[in-house]
TrEMBL record:
Keyword Glycoprotein: no
Gene3D superfamilies the record matches: SspB-like
Family matches, as InterPro entries: SspB, SspB-like_sf
Compositionally biased spans, kind Low complexity: 119-131
Transmembrane segments: none
Stretches for region Disordered: 106-164
Superkingdom of origin: Bacteria
GO biological process: proteolysis
Molecular function, one GO term: peptidase activity
Protein name (database record): ClpXP protease specificity-enhancing factor
Swiss-Prot/TrEMBL keywords: Hydrolase, Protease
Biased composition (Basic and acidic residues): 143-153
């Protein structure tokens, strides 16, 4: 079962904390091809958005994306922000919130183009057997660079580092 990201849950929690405390929640977003925002307000590939109740309509914070309508210069726009592209969520009044590392955006995660279809005369691809079977063919399991068999280190208190 794939790991479920904690990011959308943390975004919703900080949003709720901001609104309960009377603060204005703001989102910092890295803009790419998968993001739908008014491009005239994008600076250096990023946009800051007020996502308070009074500034948005139909705000929906799902596990994959944040969608809502907002007015920009009097014109209503539909916005679509992949959760993966959110750099930070914070209270505008005091700057408290949470920042996230966005090393890979949603546009970077787009599926690669399909390989070209080979002519019908091409030989069928061979299949590797599952390790442990006795047909003489074995498949090698590759490990990712961050894969290790060491258990996590015990002790110490987790820390959160805020980078400005």
């Amino acid at each position: 079962m794939p790991d479920i990201s904690t990011k959308p849950y943390l975004l919703r929690a900080i949003y709720e904390w901001c609104t309960d405390s009377g603060y204005t929640p703001y989102l910092a977003v890295k803009v790419d091809a998968a993001t739908t925002v008014p491009m005239e307000y994008v600076k250096k590939g990023e946009i800051i958005l007020n996502i308070s109740y009074g500034a948005t309509s139909g705000l929906k914070m799902d596990n994959d994306a944040i969608t809502f309508r907002a007015r920009f210069n009097g014109v209503s726009r539909e916005l679509y922000i992949p959760v993966q592209n959110v750099l930070a969520i914070y209270a505008n009044e005091n700057g408290q919130g949470m920042a996230f590392d966005v090393s890979t955006t949603a546009a970077d995660m787009a599926p690669p183009p399909a390989p070209p279809i080979e002519p019908a005369s091409a030989p069928a691809p061979s299949l590797a057997a599952v390790p442990g079977k006795t047909n003489g063919v074995t498949a090698e399991v590759s490990h990712l660079p961050d894969d290790n068999d060491e258990p996590p280190k015990k002790g110490g208190r987790p820390t959160l580092t805020r980078i400005k």
